[in-house]
Amino acid sequence: MSYEVLAVRYATRHTRASHLYANSWIYGEPDRDVRMDYYFWLVRGGGRTIMVDTGFTPEVGDARGRTTLCPVPEALARLGVNPADVDAVVLTHGHYDHAGQTGLFPRAEIAISDRELTFWTGPYAGRPQFAHAVEAADIQALRHLDDAGRITRLGDRHPLAPGVEIVEVGGHTPGQLVALVDGEGGPVLLASDAVHYYDELGLDRPFAVFANLTGMYRGLDTVRELAGADVAVVAGHDPDVLTRFTPWDRADPGFAVRVS
Predict the structure, then answer these.
(1) Which residues of the chain have pLDDT under 50?
(2) What is the CA radius of gyration of the chain?
(3) Which positions ≥6 away from 139 have C-beta within 8 Å?
């Protein structure tokens, strides 16, 4: 089984390199402007429609100084996807830009790491160094979904569908996930926030937000091992994603790319 794999940009912002990399001063480089893009990923084929992450609403984006380019429901409509037809949603982690709007998908199985959900519904999630990265309403929605029996709690490796495997790498958050997909053009690794920017892999440079620094280094090593030589790695926030892969709509190359 092979799938069409799309990376869809729904929002953006401008920031500084010093805000992105942990202890960036140790690298001895001048600061610079950096664009951060926000994506969700769509995997479809063989009668399956799988969302990897669900993004934030324009209201949440406005409150956090992010620019919404195409709200997720509109992006899905443009791609010909009815949210009611999405049969599985993978939440790679609980942060606001990845785990919002789960209510859009009334029929979907919601898959998230057991460690991740346990953490965000546990005693330390409310501490400021963690809480700033989530929306309380999103976590409450996950509680309700769990109570309703709609959440699948994942372990270290999980075969979500033929040709789609979910792997827990941790580091950025306690249960950060990545997705390995048999794409139409070859294997694809949706790295999400295990790799925000390709520089994290190429320069061994961890992101500024992490639950466990050693775990984040280990996660980068795991991504390298999973990727090997022939896997297309899709970073979680890098604008370069839009230039590495083929535009879904050549008239609007900033909207989405086909990774497969």
Answers:
(1) none
(2) 17
(3) 94, 99, 120, 121, 125
> Sign of torsion, CA 169 254 78 137?
positive
Structure confidence by residue, pLDDT tens digits, 116-132: 999 999 999 999 999 99
CA dist., res. 66 & res. 3, Å (int): 31
Q: Extract the tokens encoding 152.
A: 């699948």
Q: List, in order, residues 6 or more apart from 99 with CB less than 8 Å away.
A: 53, 54, 91, 93, 112, 134, 138, 139, 142
CA distances to 7, 46, 216, 229 from 246, in Å: 10, 22, 29, 20
Vertex 192 angle, CA 188 and 198, to 5°: 80
Phi, psi of 209 (to 5 degrees): -105, 120
CB 225 within 8 A of CB 218: no
54 contacts 10 by C-beta, under 8 angstroms: no
Q: What is the pLDDT of residue 136?
A: 98
- 14 is in which domain, residue-wise? 4-258
Model confidence, pTM: 0.97
Burial 224-239 (b: 16+ CB within 10 A, else e): eebbeeebbbbbbbbe
CATH of the domain at 101: 3.60.15.10
pLDDT of residue 174: 98
Pairing verdict, β 48-52 and 186-192? unpaired
pLDDT on residue 1: 83
Q: For position 228, what pLDDT does the model report?
A: 86
The helix/strand count (H/E) of the chain reads as 8, 14
Rounded CA separation 122/2 (Å): 38
